[in-house]
Amino acid sequence: MNKLKTGEFYGTHYQKSAFENIIITDTEYTHNKVDWHHHENPYFTYLLQGKLFESNKKKSYYLEPGSLLFHNWQDAHYNIKPPEYTRGFHIELNEKWFSNYNIQITDFEGSINLKNPLIKNLMNRVFIESKINDQYSNLSIETSLIDIFGSIKKTEEKILKRPIWVNNLQELLFEENIDYSLKNLSAILEIHPIHLSREFSRYFGTTLGNYIRFIKLNKAFCLLASNKFSMTEICYKCGFYDQSHFITNFKSVYKTTPSNILKQIS
Q1: What are phi and psi of 77, to 5 degrees?
Q2: At a CB cut-off of 8 Å and minimum separation 6, what does 11 contact?
Q3: Residues 203 and 158: beta-carbon distance below 8 Å
Q4: Rounded Cα distance, 119 and 227, in Å
Q5: In 76, 145, 166, 193, which residue has its Cα 20 to 30 A from 263's Cα atom?
Q6: What is the homologous superfamily of the domain 2-117 according to CATH?
Q7: Which range (47-61, 88-102, 156-170, 181-195) has the least confidence?
Q8: Are strands 87-93 and 22-28 parallel, antiparallel or unpaired?
């Protein structure tokens, strides 16, 4: 089985940035199929464009733009890419990085499909900082990554304790063209809307409205990164009322406009 060393990923690298104990690559996937292999270090894969099928010995994933995976170093897998343009963002961390921040890599076994929009928002910030790449970027990236691992651990610990309606709600919130009102969601889940409202933040780490906002903004971020759609098209695809509503929500999270982000990341 092939072992990829530090900074090695199949495909064409548009950008490879080395920070302290971190390698970040922005890569076009060019292979229709990559046979079984594993990597020297743990890493994240964040799919920005296209589609990808990935399988390990336990799970298989059909990845679309916005999909985020974490792979531990021992996780062997293979990939199949459809005949379309596919772009991925990778963050590779060595053993010293985990040691510096007292993060136990053994707490994160195998591969993890990260659906939490709050975690994806942190990954978007890492992506932006990798493009800025100035004297403050390393600090910003490390801070976001520490928060990401903290969130992953909390999420994994809560999964075993969650009631069934929480898992059903999580899947429901990622469906498109759905009425996100408390009345509709509680009716589908067959629970009282007050109970849903009170209990949501316990299991999701934020309010229902904020969670939905992050889902929409994460989708918008990937569309921005593709540089293929106008602001009007992005608003429509992500369920915002108009450009003003989209920009207001975007600025509330990223403290800048979508146009400014586009200049940094495209």
Answers
A1: -155, 170
A2: 27, 28, 29, 30, 31, 88
A3: yes
A4: 23
A5: 145
A6: Jelly Rolls (2.60.120.10)
A7: 156-170
A8: antiparallel
